[in-house]
């Protein structure tokens, strides 16, 4: 199991390193990430490497039995590099070149930057490829820098030329007849820089796709150098989610040896666990798509604090442990933290750490230190499948397209709708995968597509085939509105899906914040509503005026559902539960109460049940077997006390 | 009657054109606007015109009996143009040149842009001057781009030199002794770019005036080319209102053959009708000033949606029709919409259309299609005068001066105050003109000047003469504070008007949002209050402490009123009603209830009464005659049901 | 006594000057500030001075017995200067050079600007050094411009080199190992310009310190020219407070002959008096530190209006007078206003003035005019000490460091906490000095350090020595967290102070806005809370869960208190009162009620008591003696009516 964190010895004198090693050993740390932002100390001047200190650090770690995720430090070029190559500094949409002085001050399209990154990766690989501590290459850090410079513009044009082949195809894809934007020469095309009024959404979408691919190229170059020089060492990079991150993680998952994600939640209350569960199921979805296996790695999270709305929140005692186990339950190969030791200075001086400013004699360090042993006991979960016959779609390009478009309601957000679907399933006792593509539908009996805006006719056909064969599709409003160029499908919303859904969608009626519409059966809808005509489907829930709100179309042996509004929580849970049950997927009955997380893993006919009680009341376990955490037998009906967790190997015997 | 909309066949393949023609004919469309953003398809590369498709479109329209407002496409230069002439891209106040990629990416002071615009207008005129479809030239689209580049700076200096003649005059006008801004050379003068602290309000005001004039020059150049090449075809451009629009529409009204306005309301509830009525009366005010006739054209409005506070609102069934009739009642020569067919892509993909994404089999298209016949029945209203003996002043330079000044309260807004005065008159049953200048006072018995900030001594004298001769002036706080250079008149607020008003204004006491001051007679004031001394006037309403709040000064056979606070609705309606009655202007008694709009038109001794019931209760009509919409007789006392409208030709006979 | 204001005759024709002189004389004006923004009229073109008008003005003033604070006009370079020396225009953090058109458009690091400033100061000094009106040089106006240009970058590097000596020392101080920011060459260092993500707080802090020093150099150059050419004339510059002001006023106080401050309050209600009292006690603290004497000068304040939250508030009748007396009570040598006569135009056209737009026949002018005589009667207070044995710390670099750091709560603000401590003392009847440094501790029995974030080990030792010797230290959360490079002290918050305080600080728990934690004794805490361990101290107030909230550590003959939360008002007043009483400092018993300000001055064994009743109820005076304002005897128990003030020379006799 991975247990450890980001380790930055370069910030400390050597005596502290010895204390670090002692504390790590005591805590059972297995892996630390080293070198993430170390460029300026690894290469203090052009071409002059200073590996000595890192040798010492790695030797010390190896001696202590601790392995290393060795980072390439390319996310933060040093001052000398920016001064020597000012063209590598990123440029904002306003055309202003950013100054050095922070991190991530690079342009992935700048040849000098790319060459330096390859060179550094090569130098590190040469030096450490046989080092006993080396367990994993971590390339860069949280790829996510968008640049709008002229070098980027050139690269964008090249990308577009490869994508579209001809200007006619591009003009068609971007609807450049709107507002006189027809291009007559590739050289006329620019990134979506600050302009006079609304930009072209197709251009914005493609630029985000391009940026993802350009960063991916930068990653692949380093990866390929590392693989060549140090064959056999797995390579990854840590993903991060955020509005500003121009990365299509589904595509990236296919290029890493292990999907690794950072999780800095935006919620501090009970929603934090829901948010973490969503991210974990999403990471697993990426892993399944990319590597075919369910395991991934929670590579960074904060050991104590959550920063939200201008304030840091301490995690209550035990919460860090439960979060780590929850990640493991959903497929993570362990839990790693940012960071090992709190820094004395710098931009993140108050970021939480496993060794806080107040030192090792602290609650946080004691709790972190105890986690090592706990995680070690869960090792047999590795590679066990997570039992999930339901999937929720989360499609980053759809989010980007919605972000780029002036919608009938600015409150619509694919991310939020995906989270709500995931939450409704969880509350109904259904574990799901969160999937970014439609390639693995055969794994699932039920698929929820919430505001999955972009859908090609081919994808609609895929969905139709899957439904006809028995699948249950639940599509919400704004699903399948546009093709992959953000062009609205002819004939109205839902495009090629309309036939499958058996509806005709006429007008939209977004609802004000706080406003709702009463629905049949005592339910209510919010955010959005529509005028829906039935063309084959039947209405299962209606608006107060009798018009269809939720519809079901039976097609072949499957069903295609359409939700024209955002259902209230209770109705959403009930609806998704009923759809799943119709598909033969039985939710856990009764569903676990709020705050209790239950995940089942299976491998080779064996089962494990992980149950975690984040709530305030005891929960009656529904499993017999051995609790790996305590080594004691567990019987169905045993109470799981608030704050506690079990990892039950089901059945008798060891 | 104009009935139609913006038509963009360049976005569609030819089979759709044929469907368009059939649908237009069925709907009774009379005029469509073509070519607005077609530059990049009309001139796909420098100097190479591609008129073929437009020939086909215009021939098709002509064949269907539909005429064309042919636009010059100069509001959206194509990519090749911006690349070839980067100096034509507009520059923000921060000195950053805007990128192409939207629309309106032009600088009106750039010679290359101006030359291209003239050339394009000439080419279109040469090609289509004798085309049977051609009904009207629509130059450009919604002029409104402010630029701060060096070419603009040069033009600004030239404009200032013509305006002031000498640097001494400019230094005096701009009070450049404040903060050491005295200019010693014309070359030192710049547009008001981003500076260290507060800008000079006089400079900001003059720059906005200059921008209006510069855009007007650009318009006039195109107009003159069109008139020369295609004599006899009327020319206009469509006005749009908005904070950002640097256009003094009063001056522009004198340069167009037909005042054409776009209306995209900011309100979706009942205030939408009040907002539309204000704009219509304002457009008519401009028309009266510019062409001497009351008729104008509602050139663009949305057939269905209103976008406000991040959300699109559908217009309820019938509302589009009522809005169109309301515009016609107030002088519009018809109703045109943006746009004919909803686009597949581009920045405004969800903008409402007469043919929505969902196609012609939709409520919206059916309602739009029925409107053609309805409007046709109102044709005899054309050129009939709107009965209005009251006027409200709306002075765009005053708004600009207030915007440019750090006021005692940032909540003061000329636009809002003008709307409130208009609404109070309407609620009291008084139709008014909204006027931008003081040249036509003889038309009116009552004039309300709400926060009309800029007033020269000559204008004060004009007002004094008009009042002495019997006029009733109602001036609110912040009226006449400054001269036309935004210099406060010596001796305190209201300047040369003080004598006419018979008051001395000492201190101001702006009120907090939500706060009010009790007034005599049970009224209340908000937003503003003052210490007013009587120097001839008498106080008709007093503050709780007995000091004057509203005053009346009898001068000659007229009266000059002063309002030192914003009266509550009821008191404002009562006051303006009483003032009008004193002037012999009898409001409709009883005033129509909320939501009922009544306008009377007259021509050659005949009268028409338009009544529109936007409300929820029946309204007893007060007219006898023939309802043009139904062809049936109407008798006073007949109920006008909610949602209905009549256009009654008063009296008997055909 | 100084009584007068900013006088800008250059904005008016000569006839107005004569009226000004008559009005000033009638009002008893003693000093006016002349020339502040007069560069463009004093030097209308390069090198050509136009002193004639200023000669006339100064002669007129001298003839009227009015003296002059003669300003160097360097805060607003004229248009010709900016055009000729564009490199002197300031550059924002985004790299954009600001345009002229306002004021303060200078870069203090630009040689051309510095040379011009010296030249101007010299020219003014040469011309007027013997003018009988000349009383004081006022250099510049409200120094406070931050620039990020390349000239500034050069100067910053020089400053850093002088400060740190070596790059290693700088790299250590700035913790440049964080995020790969290690510098290998001085030339790599830049101002903190707009960068990709979070900046380095140590860099931001040092840049602010540098800016303060750079502006101070600019001031000193002018001062030295003035002293050389016009020896014997005192020199000052007017300080202004504000988030944006990069000035460490403590250091500046040592360079002026008289601490002069501008006060434009942000509060209009009763908090305005508390805010003014804080600023006055702070100005006196600077004066004591810089000149060793308690007197300072309120150089600018508004005679009538306060601008806050978008609205100007009139000062109620009498309030301007009370504010002026309150300043004098706390050490000001008089009261001066911005400005004498309201301008006709310019950016501050509605700013209050002693002669408003409405002229001299106004309440405001009458009140201002009466103030001259009132102030004259208080002259014997000059140089009398303000009785204050308690001090509150206000440390501008700590504020800057907090501003530059991502804190556990963004609501923490040193400024606010210092104001709250000052208010709690005042409400408890304790007058205090507000001190910026720890050099003069021997003056005080009690010192409150509220969020005094930066503290060196040497300073901690100073504090420990002072406490051991009997001092009472009250430190709040976030005091002494970091050293003077913003590096967190090893071992946890409070650093070297921890031993003195006798606590170990483990975790922080910032509280949400509006949230509170119950404390023992019925008190409550807000904003912040902590896990505090006692290591010598005892807990005097505890959180509801029994953990320490407020602690006291007896050390030697003193006490060191720690507050881990923001106490509610009542508890704070009680606590500080008790601490003071323990130190033998008896607060005024009973404390004056809300709205009554009482300050005692002493000199050579004599005492004066100033009492000002801003409140709404009579207050029973607690002094016997002669009221200097009325010349009448006062006896303890006499009521001080609402709105009134007395300056009582204690005891019998003249």
Question: What does this entry look like structurally?
Answer:
Three copies of one chain form a homotrimer. With 654 residues, chain A is an alpha/beta fold. Chain A has 17 helices and 31 strands. In chain A, strands 5-4-3-2-1-11-8-7-6 form a nine-stranded parallel beta sheet. Chain A has a seven-stranded mixed beta sheet with strand order 14-13-15-16-23-22-21, sandwiched between helices. In chain A, β21 and β22 (548-555) form a beta hairpin. In chain A, α1 crosses α12 (363-376), α5 (111-128) packs parallel to α8 (201-229) and α11 (319-329) runs parallel beside α12. Chain A starts with a strand and ends with a strand. The model of chain A has no long low-confidence stretch (mean pLDDT 96). Chains B and C meet through α8 and β17 of B and α2, α4 and β10 of C.
What labels would you give this structure?
17 helices; 21% strand; nine-stranded parallel beta sheet; seven-stranded mixed beta sheet; globular; homotrimer; 654 residues; alpha/beta
**Binned strand content of chain A:** 15-25%
Figure out the total of helices of chain A.
17
Describe the oligomeric state of these chains in a short phrase.
homotrimer
Structural classification of chain A: alpha/beta
Helix content of chain A: 25-40%
Structural shape of chain A: globular
- In whole angstroms, the N-to-C terminal distance of chain A is 20 Å
Overall average pLDDT of chain A: 96
How many runs of DSSP E, i.e. beta strands of chain A?
A: 31
- Unreliably modeled segments of chain A: none
């Amino acid at each position: 199991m991975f247990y450890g964190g980001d380790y930055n010895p370069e910030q400390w004198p050597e005596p502290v390193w010895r204390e670090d090693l002692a504390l790590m050993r005591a805590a059972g740390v297995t892996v630390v990430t080293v070198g993430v932002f170390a460029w300026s100390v690894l290469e203090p001047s052009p071409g002059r490497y200073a590996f000595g200190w890192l040798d010492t650090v790695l030797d010390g770690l190896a001696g202590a039995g601790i392995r290393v995720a060795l980072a390439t430090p390319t996310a933060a070029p040093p001052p000398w590099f920016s001064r020597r190559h000012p063209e590598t500094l990123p440029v904002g949409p306003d055309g202003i070149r950013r100054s050095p002085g922070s991190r991530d001050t690079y342009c992935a399209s700048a040849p000098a930057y790319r060459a330096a990154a390859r060179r550094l990766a090569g130098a590190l690989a040469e030096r450490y490829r046989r080092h006993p501590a080396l367990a994993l290459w971590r390339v860069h850090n949280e790829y996510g820098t968008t640049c709008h410079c002229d070098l980027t513009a050139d690269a964008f044009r090249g990308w577009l030329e490869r994508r579209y082949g001809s200007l006619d195809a591009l003009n068609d894809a971007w609807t450049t007849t709107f507002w006189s934007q027809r291009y007559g020469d590739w050289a006329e095309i620019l990134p979506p820089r600050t302009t006079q009024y609304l930009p072209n959404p197709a251009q914005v979408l493609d630029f985000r796709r391009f940026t993802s691919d350009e960063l991916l190229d930068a990653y692949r170059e380093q990866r390929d150098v590392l693989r060549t020089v140090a064959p056999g060492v797995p390579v990854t990079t840590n993903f991060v989610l955020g509005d500003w991150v121009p990365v299509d993680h589904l595509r990236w998952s296919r290029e890493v040896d292990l999907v690794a994600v950072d999780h800095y939640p935006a919620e501090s209350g009970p929603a934090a666990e829901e948010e973490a569960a969503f991210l974990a199921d999403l990471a697993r979805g990426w892993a399944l798509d990319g590597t075919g296996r369910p395991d991934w790695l929670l590579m960074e999270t904060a050991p104590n604090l959550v920063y939200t709305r201008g304030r840091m929140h301490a995690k209550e005692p035990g919460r860090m442990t439960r979060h780590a186990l929850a990640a493991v339950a959903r497929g993570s190969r362990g839990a790693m933290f940012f960071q090992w030791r709190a820094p004395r200075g710098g931009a993140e001086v108050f970021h939480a750490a496993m060794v806080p400013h107040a030192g090792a004699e602290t609650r946080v360090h004691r709790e972190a230190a105890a986690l090592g042993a706990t995680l070690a006991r869960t090792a047999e979960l590795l590679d066990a499948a997570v039992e999930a016959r339901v999937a929720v779609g989360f499609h980053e390009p759809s989010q980007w397209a919605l972000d780029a478009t002036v919608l009938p309601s600015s409150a619509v957000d694919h991310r939020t709708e995906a989270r709500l679907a995931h939450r409704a399933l969880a509350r109904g006792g259904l574990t799901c995968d969160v999937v970014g593509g439609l390639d693995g539908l055969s794994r699932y009996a039920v698929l929820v597509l919430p505001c999955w805006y972009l859908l090609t006719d081919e994808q609609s056909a895929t969905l139709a085939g899957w439904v006809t064969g028995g699948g249950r599709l639940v599509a919400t409003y704004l699903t399948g509105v546009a093709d992959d160029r953000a062009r609205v499908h002819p004939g109205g919303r839902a495009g090629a899906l309309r036939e499958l859904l058996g509806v005709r969608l006429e007008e939209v009626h977004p609802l004000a914040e706080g406003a709702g519409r009463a629905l049949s059966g005592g339910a209510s809808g919010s955010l959005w509503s529509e005028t829906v005509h039935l063309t084959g489907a039947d209405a299962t829930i209606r608006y107060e005026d009798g018009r269809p709100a939720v519809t079901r179309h039976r097609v072949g042996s499957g069903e295609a559902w359409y939700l024209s509004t955002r259902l209230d929580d209770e109705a959403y849970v009930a609806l998704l539960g009923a759809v799943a049950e119709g598909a033969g997927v039985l939710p856990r009955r009764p569903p676990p109460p709020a705050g209790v997380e239950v995940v089942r893993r299976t491998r080779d006919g064996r089962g494990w049940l992980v149950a975690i009680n984040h709530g305030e009341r005891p929960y009656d376990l529904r499993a017999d077997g051995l609790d790996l955490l305590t080594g004691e037998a567990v019987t169905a009906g045993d109470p799981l006390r608030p704050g506690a967790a079990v990892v039950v190997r089901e059945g008798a015997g060891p």
